[in-house]
Design a protein that fits this description.
With 397 residues, this protein is α/β, with parallel strands linked by helices. 43% of the residues lie in helices and 20% in strands. Strand 6 and strand 7 form a beta hairpin. The longest helix has 22 residues, at 372-393.
Length: 397
Amino acid sequence: MKKVVLAYSGGLDTSVICHMLASQGYEVYAVLVDLGQGEDLQPLADKAIRVGAQKAYVVDAVEEFLNEFVSPSIRSNAKYEGKYPLFTALSRPLIAKHLVRVAREVGADLVAHGSTGKGNDQVRFEVSVAALDPDIQVMAPVRDWKLTRDRAIEYAQKNEIPIPVTKKSPYSIDENIWGRSVECGPLENLMNEPPEDAYKLTCSHHLAPDEPEYITIGFSEGLPTSLNGEKLELRQIIERLTEIAGRHGIGRVDMIESRLVGIKSREIYEVPAAEVILVAHEDLESLTLERDTFHYKKKVEQDISELIYYGKWYSPLLESLFAFVERTQKPVTGEVTLKLYKGKAIPVKRSSPHSLYLEELATYEEKDQFSHEDARGFVNLWGLPLKIFSKVNRKED
């Protein structure tokens, strides 16, 4: 029997794939990776055994995910197309890492995933596996066997495979500690407003509290270390902010996304903690990074976000860009207070021991120490090239 290691979520596609592979004579090893999705994975592991897996591995990777994947993305303000905090894209190279590890342990030279042929995850899984172990082959049954959602649901019902979706509730959901995504069903019609049953982590703006709530996030070298003055681990901060910000309707993203495979897709994301943390982090950077570094980092952030989205986590370029970002974060220490109100997180106070804001230079009051005399000469020299160009190239009317 040929051994195959399957990235198993317990959802529709991977449950059907597990059964199909076992029925075709494969020895299936299911891998379930806990990324803080808020559910007990052991029942899903038991389910994998019931639908055909030889063995199921439950991997607790929450801290690994936070320390090695989410943390550098926070420091990089990573958002694809300025909106999506990449929580799914961040998880795939980590899952691939554990697929490769288990494949080596059980002596398998084949891994499988449940991604479709029009999605980004097929790229992320397969490119990551190739980077980690180019000798391991990858199967994509949903793509290669043309397994549509309707066919998968019918197969599951015919073979008595318990699944979390029906034709009446056809959402495809992915979730981890950094966010939640929802696809399919009524969302595929761009004229449909997302129904409230698509959301789980956030409330509707009009149901959010009528009074604002103020929170303070403390950072050390670019990473959150405290909430409202209490020192906490990153996991605790994210979990608390998910509840607090979600209560205020913060973190809903409804976007038209440019997929790597060339199509446009509608994506619904819930990212309450990510939204608040990234807003606060970027605000603190504006206070502590000098102008050239702050502006140049914005260019690097876009490159980083695209590399992550495009599945190139293990590329030497991304590693090098992360090294640059890490160096920029030395002074990004301090606190940011945000006002949470009706779907918005608004920075209203900030402080840092490395603050580059000097009130005596910024003020327009009597204590102003800015050299206004120097400004005239500066402006003249700054505009001199344009002045000369105009004189040389000016044409009479």
